[in-house]
Amino acid sequence: MTTHTIDIATADAQAIDPAAAIAAAEAGRTRLDFGKSARKAFRALIGFDAAAREGLDPALVELIQIRASHLNHCAYCLHMHTNDARKAGESEDRLHMVPVWREARHFFTEKEQAALALTEAVTLVADGGVPDGVYAEAAARFDEQELAQVLALILAINTWNRVALATGKVAGTDERR
After folding, report:
1. What is the DSSP string of 111-175?
2. Is the Cα dihedral 117, 60, 158, 24 positive or negative?
3. DSSP alpha helices (H): ranges in 28-74?
4. How far apart, in whole angstroms, are the C-alpha atoms of residue 164 and residue 171?
5. pLDDT tens digits, the chain, 177 residues: what are they?
6. DSSP for 62-107?
7. Longest dimension (CA), the chain
8. Is-contact 111 60, C-beta < 8 A?
9. pTM, two decimal places
10. Is the Cβ–Cβ distance between 10 and 128 less than 8 Å?
11. How far apart are alpha carbons 122 and 67 in whole angstroms?
């Protein structure tokens, strides 16, 4: 295990300049670059992600990815997808309400609420599976093909979150190729 020391001047610069903190974290990176080291798997995951998004509303795609990233504590993906959502025109109000969507349902459509509930159940599947009621609500809001796409997207973002967390991706850097 290696440790990294940072002198006072460097620490002060990082406190003022977030880019300096990111550069320092990347310079000390000791984990592999999954995209380079597992090219075939990485490309397959990119293809799966693209296929999962097909036909879904881009706003819904980002909401699902943001919620799963919250639950998985994936700062790298959360930063990336909140920025993508903003670029696509998503409001700050809705972005702030995603973690507490149940308490702020009026910010989200019934379809979005069903997708967020399914995202939570699938992401936290070890906590009790996917409850029949959550699945039934999603099935009532999406046709079979859309539901399959939503499920595929939830699986994809959970995989991306795990890749980012396992390889030590740094929030604030967007390494998409």
Report:
1. HHHHHHHHHHHHHTGGGT---HHHHHHHHHHS-HHHHHHHHHHHHHHHHHHHHHHHTTPPTT---
2. negative
3. 34-37, 39-53, 58-71
4. 10
5. 333 333 333 333 444 455 554 554 555 556 888 888 899 999 999 999 999 999 999 999 999 999 999 999 999 999 999 999 999 999 999 999 999 999 999 999 999 999 999 999 999 999 999 999 999 999 999 999 999 999 999 999 999 999 999 998 888 777 664
6. HHHHHHHHHHTT-HHHHHHHHHHHHHTT--HHHHHHGGGGGGGGGG
7. 58
8. yes
9. 0.81
10. no
11. 11
Closest to 78 (Cα-Cα) out of 90, 87, 69: 69
What is the distance, to the nearest Å, from the Cα of residue 112 to the centroid of all Cα atoms in its chain?
16
Tell me the C-alpha distance between 165 and 115, whole Å. 24
Give the residue carrying structure tokens 């000390």.
28
CB atoms within 10 A of CB 148: 12
Both tokens assigned to 91:
């409001």
Do the beta carbons of residue 51 and residue 153 sit within 8 Å? no
